[in-house]
Design goal:
Blueprint lengths: L54 E4 L4 E7 L3 E4 L2 E15 L4 E13 L2 E3 L2 E9 L4 E3 L2 E8 L4 E3 L2 E3 L1 H5 L5 H11 L7
């Protein structure tokens, strides 16, 4: 009963056969776009990313030795040895990442394993499965329960107050004359 009913109108994907010239092969007609809305590319963009900012990804099977610098957000799932410098961007260390590097960025989020010093102009987050062995310098810090951290933390208030200059240059010159940060 349900399967025996034939459609009253021809399918939209193929033109009617009776109107085709006999010497031309059958071609599917372009799909009708009426009544459908085009998907915005914003719907596929990760949360927190804006139109002018894209996130680069270093896959889990990649291994980099040397220096990474750039002007876009970066997600690392592989392994990196060296220096990572993304001054005004966000660096995310994925759960499968193994990073042995000093890191300079606006924001650093750690889900994986990091050995090295981290400097963030805005904030550093160490998630519950994250591991950091090194010194942190940042304006804001968040360490979730279950995270591993070994090193010192220096809260750099100058980067919070004055965002026009480089907080990294000021903190390194200011720390030369000040006592060493406490180790936790």
């Amino acid at each position: 009963m349900w399967g025996n009913k034939k459609p009253d109108s021809p399918q939209a994907a193929y033109p009617e056969l009776k109107n085709l010239p006999s010497n031309q092969p059958l071609k599917p007609a372009p799909a009708a776009r009426e009544g459908t809305t085009a998907m915005s590319t914003d719907a596929m963009r990760p949360l927190g990313a804006t139109a002018d900012r894209s996130t680069a990804r270093l896959g889990a099977s990649l291994h980099v030795k040397g220096e990474i610098s750039g002007n876009e957000d970066l997600l690392i799932d592989g392994s990196v040895e060296g220096l990572i410098q993304l001054d005004e961007r966000k660096l995310t260390i994925g759960a499968t990442a193994k990073v042995t590097a000093d890191i300079i960025a606006r924001e650093v989020v750690v889900y994986g394993n990091v050995k090295g010093n981290l400097r963030a102009k805005d904030r550093i987050e160490i998630k519950k499965d994250g591991s950091v062995n090194g010194d942190l310098t940042t304006a804001r810090i968040m360490i979730e329960d279950g995270a591993y951290f070994k090193g010192s933390i220096e809260i750099d208030k100058t980067s919070e107050k004055d965002s026009t200059g480089s907080a990294f240059a000021r903190s390194s010159s200011a720390s030369a004359g000040s006592p060493a940060a406490k180790t936790i």
